[in-house]
Design brief:
The protein is of the alpha/beta class. It has 10 helices and 12 strands. Strands 3, 4, 5, 6, 7, 9, 10 and 11 form an 8-stranded parallel beta sheet that branches. Helix 6 links the parallel strand 6 and strand 7. It is globular.
């Protein structure tokens, strides 16, 4: 049976080095991965840290490693556009059209069941030159599933893509950005690197249909090495009996309407669009070549941290004691 979601504990904003020290690296039972682990990227915002599962995971004795990126450490004006939840016939072709008109490449995190529903649209995404990542098979949150269920949905998602691409994709993004020990173990077993994000559509105070607000937020918050989260689908609502969610449709439409303005503004400011693999492999100046922690980044405490919830936008956090409602994206 899946584990019930636990209330998150708010932590202060951490840069990459502080985050690595807090979660621990390099020893059996390291806090985030419950195993020797390597985390690259930078936490540019306050994150919600779930502690409830940590003792169980740390006692598990698992071994392995997983790599997680929020962004790349670079002064180059490059940004990795990423789109979650496709392929979806009502949105994906429109996103592809906007990207083509602006000569922009993206990394698309697709849901395995949605790919099975529309393999031709998936092929259109791939043939347009966009990088493919996995977004699980079922699009269910990790903290609501058992460890075996998480492994199953990560593996099945990768295998659906492997059949069409000829290989499993490098990149994986967990649903809602929830990075748990079970997610990291599954990603390591399947052979994925994990990508979260440092930039999204905006705070929860932004109205669902406020395309101008989405555009203004993305224009203001972009930074060198950003991983930007947008969507070309509706999560798993098209897969459920009740059908697509009207609120999500409104939110996705606002993102789509904002996209041309955002791409034009970023390009005018000197930004170039790259895939996640290019961002990390070519521009990330923080990732050690062999994954070994530098001496100053060895664990300095044993505070157990099991999961990082990347779905919370820093602009939501006016009060560090207030936990925003779970985003349905």
């Amino acid at each position: 049976m899946g584990l019930a979601p636990r209330a998150p504990v708010r932590c202060p904003a951490l840069d990459r080095r502080s985050f690595l020290r807090r979660v621990g690296r390099g020893g059996v039972g390291a806090a985030l991965v419950a195993a020797p682990g390597f985390l690259a990227g930078e936490v540019r915002a306050t994150r919600s840290i779930h502690r409830g599962l940590a003792p169980r995971i740390a006692a598990n004795g698992a071994r392995g490693n997983a790599r997680v990126w929020w962004s790349a450490e670079t002064e180059e004006k490059v940004v990795a556009l990423t789109f979650d939840d496709g392929p979806y016939a009502d949105l994906t072709p429109r996103v592809l059209d906007v990207l083509a008109r602006h000569d922009a490449v993206a990394t698309c995190f697709v849901i395995g069941q949605m790919v099975e529903r529309d393999p031709d649209l998936f092929r259109a995404v791939h043939e347009a030159g966009h990088e493919i990542g996995s977004h699980t098979y079922h699009h269910r949150r990790a903290e609501e599933q058992s460890r075996d269920e998480v492994l199953d949905t990560v593996t099945r998602g990768a295998d659906v893509l492997g059949e069409l691409l000829g290989h499993r994709p490098r990149w994986f993004r967990p649903v809602k950005g929830h990075v748990t020990g079970a997610v990291l173990r599954a990603a390591a077993r399947v052979g994925h690197d994990v990508a979260i994000w440092s930039l999204s559509r905006g705070p929860r105070t932004l109205a669902d249909g406020d395309a101008a607000g989405v555009a203004a937020h993305l224009r203001a918050k972009v930074h060198p090495g950003a991983i930007a989260l947008l969507h070309d689908g509706l999560g798993r609502t098209p897969l459920d009996r009740f059908g697509p969610d009207a609120q999500l449709r409104t939110r996705r439409q606002a993102e789509l309407e904002a996209l041309p303005e955002v791409l034009e503004a970023w390009a005018a400011d000197g930004y170039r669009f790259v895939t996640l693999s290019e961002l990390v492999d070519r521009y990330d100046g923080l990732a050690p070549e062999d994954g070994a922690p530098a001496p100053e980044e060895l664990p300095v405490d044993d505070d157990l941290v099991d999961a990082v919830d990347a779905s919370i936008d820093p602009d939501d956090l006016t009060d560090p004691e207030v936990v925003p409602a779970v985003d349905r994206d």
